[in-house]
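Lab notebook page, bench 4
Experiment: in silico fold of construct C2
Operator: M.H.
Input chain length: 586 residues
Purpose: comparison with the prior construct
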Amino acid sequence: MTTTAPHPRPLVVAAPRRAGATPLRVVSPSAASAPSAATPAAAAVVAGSVPATSPSGSSVRITGPDVAGAREILTPEALAFLTELHHRFAGRRAELLSERHARRRRLANGHLPDFLPETKHIRDDRSWQVAPPAPGLLDRRVEITGPTDRKMTVNALNSGAKVWLADLEDANTPHLANVIEGQVNLRDAIRRTIDHTTPEGKRYELGEDLATIVVRPRGWHLLEKHLHVDGEPMVGALVDFGLYFFHNAAELIARGAGPYFYLPKLENHLEARLWHDVFAYAEEALGVEHGTVRATVLIETIMAAFEMEEILYELREYSAGLNAGRWDYLFSVIKKFRDSGPAYVLPDRADVTMAAPFMRAYTELLVRTCHKRGAHAIGGMSAFIPSKDPERNAEVEAKVRADKQREADAGFDGSWVAHPGMVGYVREVFDGVLGACPHQIWRTREDVHVTARQLLDVAATPGAVTERGVRTNVAVALRYLEAWLGGRGAVAIFGLMEDAATAEISRSQVWQWIHNATPLDDGRTVTHALVRQVLEEETAALLGEAGDDTARRARIAEATDLFTEVALGEEFPTFLTVPAYANRVE
């Protein structure tokens, strides 16, 4: 069966629609290598802190070390825009986070999630559709995700993928240098002025056929500790979105694309509505035509799985579809049902595949929901990376192809990889299903009927909890935390690309196994004592690798302390929000 793809509509800059309002000016930053002499000193980040004042009279305080590029990114105009975003939306964001905690308490008391009766009319109304695909987002058969360091930016754009998810979230760390460098690199990439030369003299520069940039800002739950408005820290999501939109929206439109985003960690449609209002305000304030922004939502929380249609509805003029964020989804299941008993205890991470009944229900519902509304459905990330061993590479290729064939056959319009070496495999798989058609939205999957019980059937997951699984989780989490403390948010560990989501699965499974006295396959029980023993052994191994590297040995010691707090303690914090560690990130 064939279909005619809709033609993407051109994007234009229109006059702002707000009566009597003066739009904020979109400035063209100077080149990254030469800070503008005209940029006021108050816009710079220097050691210690620098107060600045926005046009509204609010006091903006910037704290942190000297960071290259900060003068061009944190301009007075950009700070004024961030201040407006903060004043308009930070309060609602705080209320929505409070409601998250209330829902968590209800779950702990046995109130299971279900499809919302009050929004049934939205799900039953077959008339509404999302906006047609925007330029550069019509064909998304292979997407690559990764951090926004300079080398990765060039490699991702040159990778042959249709889309690059420029990750300011799970593959990043909240060091100020990363926050600023990511914005500098994105700005330069959009203007095609980016290149990179390694200390060894290897040069990286852009080719001709580049991936479309889609930026993932931080989730609603994270703050930006380096920027304060009237004494309050700014919201990390608004900082990431605001800086990228302010500096690049006009340039992107002029080049025939637009400001596109991946929205992480949403738990319900009201959080999607907040993003809708952020987009609408930003377009109006900067004189961008309404509906220019596009956003793909990651369905990576168990709560959002029950509100997929409502999320698409709230973002319908901005929507670019949904993505099956499989790793964070698993973490969300553990986090939300951590104290709900053995029925929600997962086996070894390696045993939890997309064939597990509750994961299959989630992905099938996602495809059904997206195609019902004319939206793209994007598959989950393959975390495999190439190795120097030909036999290992052949094994990895077979696994990646099988995973992506399953997604393509299920109706997904594309999928993710974490390494340029995997792009070709995924493209070939989707080429075999899509052919010349850019997507398969016409496959509405009317055969799919998913119930709330199926989404929650964690107990049917095959597999076991083993000592090897415990050791792997401890080893992965410890190695990732050591890298994270050093400023790296995406790390190759044991042949997989690990980020914050996969590391959270590893440590949260250990916590859950301990607190549920989970039996191992050999008859023993997962206990604090067993995990501490494994942790000591893994710490010793890492210290052996570090040798005389004093800085790394210090990070390993900190990582061990952090793992102890988030995996062996009574509480269940997210490691990114543990104050002792979040506050030390410069």
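Observations: The CA atoms of residues 59 and 548 lie 45 Å apart. The chain is about 40% helix and 15% strand.
Next step: discuss at group meeting.
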